[in-house]
Design brief:
Blueprint (H helix, E strand, L loop, with lengths): L2 H9 L3 H41 L9 H40 L9 H28 L5
Helix pairs in contact: 2-3, 3-4
Length: about 150
């Protein structure tokens, strides 16, 4: 089947079947975004950790400017990729809510209390805290006097 045939077949479905199909597609897209961006901070963390451990023994890996740059880049990727990942997940959630609204006529009911909002935003808050810690680590790595 080509795309046109699939679209025609989809348009002939009952609304509840369309919603089930679209929810399934949204779930798959969310999972792919999760997998895609979830690996980057893990790989960066492991690579930076290996380099840092290797620099403990100056005979194994002397701490040159090049090694400092590599460690800095790898460490910087960690919070940056987490922040991008969080925003991509929020975008996927908004798409899912839009699909829900399209078929149900209203957005899904999500609690908007203070603690719920804080919990919803906690991944971003933690990523910002990690980002601040990374800046402090940069200052220490490069011996900046601020």
């Amino acid at each position: 089947m080509n795309k046109k045939d699939l679209k025609e077949k989809f348009n002939k479905q009952k609304p509840e079947d369309k919603l089930r199909i679209l929810n399934s597609i949204n779930d798959q897209l969310t999972m792919l975004v999760h997998a895609e961006f979830g690996t980057l901070p893990i790989v960066s963390t492991l690579a930076a950790a290996l380099l840092v451990v290797a620099t403990f023994n100056s005979k194994l890996l002397p701490l040159t400017s090049l090694i400092k740059i590599i460690i800095s880049v790898l460490i910087f990727i960690i919070p940056l990729s987490l922040i991008v990942y969080i925003f991509r997940l929020k975008k996927a959630r908004n798409i899912g809510e839009d699909l829900w609204e399209t078929y149900q006529g209203k957005r899904p009911k999500i609690s908007k209390g203070f603690w719920d909002q804080l919990l919803n935003e906690s991944p971003l808050i933690f990523a910002v805290i990690i980002f601040i810690a990374i800046i402090i680590i940069f200052i220490r790595i490069w011996n900046w006097n601020i």
